Amino acid sequence: MRPMITRLALLLSLLAAPATLAQTPTVREEIQVSVDGRSETWRLVWDGPTRPFCGLDDLATADTGPCNGFAYGEQGALFLERRGADGTLLDRLDLAPAFRDSDLAGLDSGNAALQRWPVQDRDGDMAKAGAAEIAAFTARVQARPPVRIMALGDYDGDGKALEFLFQTNVLPTAKQYYAAAGIDPATGRLHLLHSTARPDRALVMSKAAWQALAKGGSAVEVPFWACDDHGSDIRQTYRLSAQKGQISVTIRDYDCASSALQKEEAW
Questions:
Q1: Cα angle 204-186-217, degrees, rounded to a multiple of 5
Q2: Residue 213 φ/ψ, nearest 5 degrees
């Protein structure tokens, strides 16, 4: 009878144990969007726990160039959701692949990162403050309104402002780079915007390049890398155009001494 008693005791202990609750997704931001005349709710959702990224737990690091645009942020599994007027989930997109080629220190594989609270002038002075001052400062920062992410624009030239930018990388001298997410006019589904040359990856560019696309019109050339930047003897530009959902990007290399075009590469 002992084995039966043991199994019975184990079953009773399991029944008595508190149920493990599933992790509830956290809505980071929510906006109302009109898509072909239909009202939708778009949400940025953390699907699971998050942890600081360039966060308030390490003010000395948050105040450095590699955290420019990400302080005071968080990282985790991040999704963009579309929901209908009745709350029905229409579509869902994982934003982590946009970070695949980034070199952000401290970003876990499979995660995305977003700035949460804005940085203000003189925040960096707190890095060497005492514990009590830092605790009070942290509370003040957390009372600031969260940084807005989903500012919609037309970045793919389809005539509909149904895309938004989010930062995915920062390079030396605080150069911020962005990807874009929105509705693919060819499929009507959420996607990460890409170039015609590289449909296999999210297109990541400077904000100036994206803003040039949003202005529409004919192809434009936008600075990418300047002469003498980190000793470079080459000046690089983006050659950009967007029409009917198709984005064309070419990187052009110019010799700094002669200004002669040396190379062009589809991006």
A1: 60
A2: -65, -40
3-state secondary structure of 75: strand
pLDDT greater than 90 at residue 12? no
**Cβ density class 195-216: b for 16+ within 10 Å, e for less:** beeeeeebbbbbeebbebbbee
Dihedral angle computed from the Cα positions of residues 137, 143, 144 and 145, in that order, rounded to the nearest 10 degrees? 160
Distance in angstroms (rounded) separating the CA atoms of residues 234 and 221: 16
- Of 248, 250, 164, the C-alpha closest to 211 is 164
pLDDT of residue 23: 64
- Proportion of the chain above pLDDT 90, given as a percent: 82
pTM more than 0.70:
yes
Residues 82, 34: contact at Cβ < 8 Å? no
Partners of 264 in beta bridges: 252
CA distance 63 to 147: 17
Residue 231 has which token pair? Answer: 């000793």
Taking each continuous run of H as one helix and of E as one strand, the counts in the chain are: 4, 15
pLDDT digits (tens, 9 = 90+) for 110-131: 999 999 999 998 887 787 788 8
Greatest mean pLDDT range, 14-18, 160-164, 213-217: 160-164
What is the enclosing helix (H) or strand (E) of 253? strand 246-255
13-27, 94-108, 118-132: range with highest mean pLDDT: 94-108
Eight-state DSSP code of residue 228: T
